[in-house]
Structure formats: C-alpha cells, structure tokens
Specification:
Oligomer: single chain
Shape: globular
Strand order of the largest sheet: 4-3-2-1-5
Number of domains: 2
Number of strands: 7
Structural class: alpha+beta
Strand content: 5-15%
Length: 326
C-alpha cells in the first residue's frame, strides 16, 4: 500500500507540477529571458489570466499525458502478472472512472482533428477494445466505411499538395485505425519489461519535445498599436508597435514589443489598436474536412471548430502586416 501511495503521489506531482512549470517558463520566454521584464509580467498578469491561458493552450498536453499513461497501463494489465507489477499498470487499474472518461473526452475536443485517430488507438489499448465475432466485425466495417467517407476528400487533397503534406497526413489518418484492430491483447512475455521501461521514457521525451512550442506561445494577446509623432515634433506618418500590452494607467501604456523590451507610450499618442493573430495560429497544411455541412481544418480542434461555426474569426487588419517598429 505504501508503494502504491508513492506511485500515485509521484504521478499527480507530475500532472499538477507540469502546467505550473510551463506557466513559469512561458513568462520567462515571453520576457526574452530578462529578469526585470519577467518581474514586470509577474506583477501585472493576473493568476486567473495565466491559468486561463494555460487551459486554453495546454489542455491537450495534459490530456495527452493521461491518455498515454492509461493506454500503456491497459496493455500492461492485459499482459498478466508480468505487466501488472509495474507502477503504471497499477495506477491505470486504480484510476477512477471519471478520470479515465474525462481524459478521453477532453482530448477528443482539444486535440487537433489530425491527431484524433491516435486517440482511437489509445482508447483501444486502454480499454482493450477489439472486434469479437461477426457483430464486432460488422460494426468495424460500418465505422470504417463512415471514416472513409469522411476523410476521402482529405486524402485526395493531401496527395495533390505533395509528399511534404501527404506523408504526415496519411501516417496520422490511416495507420492508427489499422493498429487499433490489433493493439488489444497481452504482450509477449519477453517484450513486457522493455516496453514498460522504454515506452514511458520515450513518451516523456516526446511530450517534452512537443511542449517546446507551447512554452513559446504568448500569454498576452498580440496587438499592433498605432501611435502618432510626439507633440514637440512635426506631424508625420504614424508608427506601428507590434507586441503585447502589459499594463495601462492614466498616463502611459506599457507594451512588450515584438522586437524585445518594454516600450512605454503616452496614452494621448495612441491613435488605434488592432488585435492580430500570431504566426502559430495559421495552419501549415491547408486541409479541411467538408462533409455533411461540416467544414473544419485538420489543424483545428473540435472545440475551436465549433467556436468558428458560432462566430467567424477576426478579419486580419492591414496593420497586422506592417513590420514591427515601422
């Protein structure tokens, strides 16, 4: 019982401590590694806003950790005593139902559509799902036909865009559903220990590698501020400052400039401000699912797709294309 308690304590320490660590690292990276700028951000960013930013952008990472743990634990538990002795198998077996269901439900709406087939593979491993008898294979055939109907146009579009697009698309859309048919069941006795040791380490490395762009994701909204010339100078063309507004008082507005450093602008010089998307928000692969009235980009989550269906994205203002500091 003591060992099981330590296993649970270690897992929950990582699960809770990882988002906190990412939040601190995001502030440090956002400040350009400068101590004084970091302290300024800490002073003026409300903890609720920081948590909201983390939930909006990092929920998928936390759910990925839980989903991977449940999937590997399910496979180890199915392998008998040889696999059930590992801490991950014990944790997965004793994880409450709400945690298992909640992890997969959150992952289903926060993961990019492109990665949802991996979630199906993980669910089959975690719950040991596989076709049983002719009813099971009949259900699989129906689901495969519906899936093919849904992604058929995407597969064709990816092929026309060239190898740089269709290789990644085909691997993520086609391989996991095929592996889902054979993932359930016990491992070979000789493979249990290597998989139980190597897979968590590889998963942790992969999650850390994926989290690097997450640490670089801005916490504050990205804006472009148009300012006029100082009162003691002759009027000229307005200047545009791209960055993030940290704080504003009765006299000055502090802007974390895109090129680095804090810029203080007198409020009377501010003529306009525009909300602009960051480069990370633009999709790399122009692929969409167009079926049954549904239109969603593969690099959007289901939640973001529903949001776009309810309210269209903000039009890109021309000021957002102006180089920083011009």
């Amino acid at each position: 019982m003591v060992k099981e308690g330590k296993d649970n304590e270690a897992f929950w320490t990582v699960a809770i401590g990882l988002p906190v660590l990412l939040s601190v690292l995001r502030l440090w990276v956002e400040a350009g590694g400068e101590l004084q700028t970091t302290l300024l951000l800490v002073e003026h960013i409300d903890p609720v806003n920081l948590v909201a930013a983390m939930v909006a952008t990092a929920t998928w990472l936390v759910t990925a950790m839980f989903v991977a743990a449940l999937a590997l634990g399910g496979v180890l538990n199915a392998s008998g005593e040889a696999g059930q002795g590992f801490w991950l198998a014990r944790w997965a077996a004793r994880a409450p139902l709400w945690l298992k269901a909640g992890s997969f439900a959150l992952a289903a709406i926060t993961w990019q559509v492109l990665y949802l087939p991996l979630l199906v593979l993980a669910a089959c491993a975690a719950y040991q799902l596989r076709p049983r008898g002719w009813p099971g294979w009949l259900a699989v055939t129906g689901l495969a036909a519906a899936y093919g109907y849904l992604i058929g146009p995407v597969v064709a579009d990816a092929w026309r865009l060239g190898p740089s697009v269709y290789v990644m698309t085909y691997v993520l859309l086609l391989v996991p559903p095929l592996l889902s048919l054979v993932i359930a069941g016990p491992l070979a006795p000789g493979a249990v220990r290597p998989i139980a040791i190597v897979t968590p380490l590889a998963s942790a490395f992969l999650l850390a590698w994926i989290a690097v762009p997450l640490v670089q994701t801005p916490i504050l909204p990205h804006t472009v501020t148009m300012i006029s010339a100082p009162p003691d100078q002759s009027p000229g063309a307005p200047k545009y400052i791209g960055g993030h507004i940290v704080t504003s008082d009765n006299t000055h507005t502090a802007i974390l400039a895109q090129q680095g450093g804090i810029t203080y602008v007198r409020n009377e010089r501010i003529e306009a401000q525009y909300l602009c998307p960051t480069d990370e928000e633009f999709p790399r692969y122009p692929l969409r699912i167009h079926r049954a009235g549904l239109s969603i980009e593969l690099e959007h989550s289901v939640l973001r797709g529903l949001g776009r269906a309810n309210r269209a994205g903000t039009p890109l203002h021309p000021a957002c294309r102006v180089p920083a500091g011009k």
